[in-house]
């Protein structure tokens, strides 16, 4: 992926140099602002990395803008680590749903809030599921900055125990309902072709994994490791710790629905 790209007049993406199995090409940091306003908002500063900072500062110079606020989609370090240091460096407000990210002097964002910053209107869209504090930001163009709710390739992880699959599915439907013109993801390329089809795929993918999990239990698998060996047999091993989290989140959903029952020995059986 190209490191710095202008996606639309109001949005520049800067890719951080932190690629991995979980972060794909690295974390996408977004600069959002009306051209000529002299201001931008940074969404998901990413890792506190000198090379990344200088790439972002170069993008600020190219836009002839200063950073007036740092918004963060969720507390994971690959999105939030630079929030406080960059907020201090730029003299910008740090804003997030979680006090751990916003810091003692930052601003706590609320679901449904409408932000007017850097000459643009940003709608704060609650998207819990990947984590409890997860937010997305809808732009005037109809594009949605989705953080880790949806990735540019593959699928996202519902973390466990913090994540919540029921909330995650509701969040997918919420973003779907916005009829987004594009999804600008926390990792991987932007999804501009048919964003609602991607959201439909995500919903179908979760339903498919749930069916596979139920079939694995019916086949005699009981523990998370046994379920992984069946359901994620085709997925590289390095992604199994993440798959285990999504599996636990699915088991929690099915347990709440009384479709599976936990056993005293850490395993699960069909109810
Ligand atoms: Zn991430």
Structural Rg: 19 Å
Instruction: Please provide the ordered H/E string of secondary-structure elements.
Output: EEEEHEHHEHEEEEEHEHHHEE
**Between the first and last Cα atoms, what is the distance in angstroms?**
46 Å
Shape: elongated
Portion in helices: 25-40%
Bound compounds, each kind once, are:
zinc ion
Q: Helix segment count?
A: 8
**Which percent range describes the beta-strand content?**
15-25%
- Major sheet characteristics: 7 strands, mixed
Q: Low-confidence spans: pLDDT under 50, at least 5 residues?
A: none
Structure description:
It is a single chain. The chain has a seven-stranded mixed β-sheet with strand order 1-2-3-4-5-6-7. A five-stranded mixed β-sheet has the order 8-9-10-11-12, covered by helices on one side. Strands 13-14 form a two-stranded antiparallel ribbon. The radius of gyration is 19 Å and the shape is elongated. Strand 9 and strand 10 (135-138) form a beta hairpin. The model has no long low-confidence stretch (mean pLDDT 96). Helices cover 34% and strands 23% of the residues. With 271 residues, it is of the alpha/beta class. Bound molecules: zinc ion (ZN).
């Amino acid at each position: 992926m190209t490191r710095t790209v202008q996606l639309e007049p109001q949005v520049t993406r800067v890719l951080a140099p932190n690629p991995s199995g979980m972060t794909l090409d690295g974390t996408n940091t977004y600069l959002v602002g009306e051209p000529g306003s002299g201001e931008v908002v940074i969404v998901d500063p990413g890792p506190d990395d000198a090379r990344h900072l200088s790439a972002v500062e170069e993008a600020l110079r190219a836009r002839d803008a200063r950073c007036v606020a740092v918004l963060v989609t969720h507390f994971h370090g690959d999105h939030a680590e630079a929030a406080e240091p960059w907020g201090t460096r730029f003299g910008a407000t740090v804003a997030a749903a979680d006090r751990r990210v916003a810091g003692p002097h930052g601003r706590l964002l609320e679901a449904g809030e409408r932000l007017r910053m850097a000459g643009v209107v940003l709608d704060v869209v609650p998207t819990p599921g990947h984590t409890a504090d997860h937010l997305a930001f809808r732009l005037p163009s109809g594009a949605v900055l989705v953080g880790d709710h949806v990735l540019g390739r593959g699928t996202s992880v519902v973390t466990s125990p913090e994540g919540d699959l029921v909330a995650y599915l509701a969040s997918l439907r919420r973003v779907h309902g916005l009829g987004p013109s594009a999804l600008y993801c926390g990792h991987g390329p932007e999804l501009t072709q048919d964003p609602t089809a991607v959201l439909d795929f995500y919903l179908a993918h979760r339903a498919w994994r749930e069916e596979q999990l139920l079939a694995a239990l019916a086949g005699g698998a009981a523990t998370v490791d046994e379920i992984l060996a069946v359901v994620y047999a085709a997925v590289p091993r390095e992604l199994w710790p993440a798959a285990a989290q999504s599996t636990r989140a699915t088991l929690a959903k099915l347990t709440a629905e009384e479709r599976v029952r936990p056993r005293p020995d850490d395993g699960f059986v069909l109810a």
